[in-house]
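A quick word before the example. In earlier lectures we treated sequence and structure as two separate objects. From today on, think of them as two lines of the same record. Here is Cyclase family protein written that way.
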Amino acid sequence: MTLDRNDPEGSIAEAAKAYSNWGRWGEDDVLGTLNFLDAAKRREGATLIRRGVSFSLAQRFDMDGPQKGWRRRTNPVHTMLDTGTDAALGNQGFPHGIGGADDVISMPLQCSTQWDGLGHIFDHGVAWNGRPAEKVVTSDGDLVTGIEHMAPYVAGRGVLLDVGRTIGTDGELPDGFAVTGEHLTATTTAQGVSVGRGDIVLVRTGQLARVRRNGWGDYAGGAAPGLSFTSAGWLHGTEMAAIATDTWGFEVRPNEFEHAFQPLHQVAIPHMGLLIGEMWDLEGLAKDCAADGVYEFWLTAAPLPITGAVGSPVNPIAVK
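And the structure line, produced from the sequence above:
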């Protein structure tokens, strides 16, 4: 794909037409590319468990997260409703000495490790599968493609593409580095791993490792390595089920067009129906993969079945 940095509208329209999956799974579809992840693919993924070692790919959900209030995205607020102090003082009102603790959390659904649902992004007022955005997501939530529909299905063969180690310097890509389809293919070749239909692909840039050393800075919304707009064809052609990165916004920032905001999202979600994950912690998994040379594994990453949600926190678990 050619990229005219002064014409985001034209480039987005061209890519949307070329890589659309509208109607591919029927007019009532609510799963998008998760349709590629079928029972056979899950059975294949389950055979990848050899050592039984597991990795949580979630960042922490606490007040020390990266959010700075962009579009009212804040870090989680965790509040205790009952505590050990209450139990010790005997003021909980329970019989025979039993006590307990309870808590509540308040947070945007996309403040830490998360999935973008199909109702998260629109293109000129049109949602996934060509539906009018105003009929899909209202003040009552996503009435059609709420992320609860995906909850049973996000489990199968995971593949780590450690682009940071393969292409970068000292295991990391610099902010503003655009990861193209050619970079992704080079990484699969270097790692001796394939990416194909129904896979859940994880792309490590190394940015999360860097901000952990240096502080969050502008991790949330600032400059970052990420997927190039030109990678849309690669994403579509692989027939992957989902993809996630260790960055805040999945695609390269600043974006590759003048006066644009997240143009790859505008193609990938409403037109491809691609499930996108962001802010995943791939460091422990990547270290293990580099040590044993195995970059495929069983991965389960179910969103919370929050009715009508357009995104969801997730604690992905990779097992090798």
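Notice the following. The chain has a mean pLDDT of 97. We will return to this example when we discuss secondary structure assignment.
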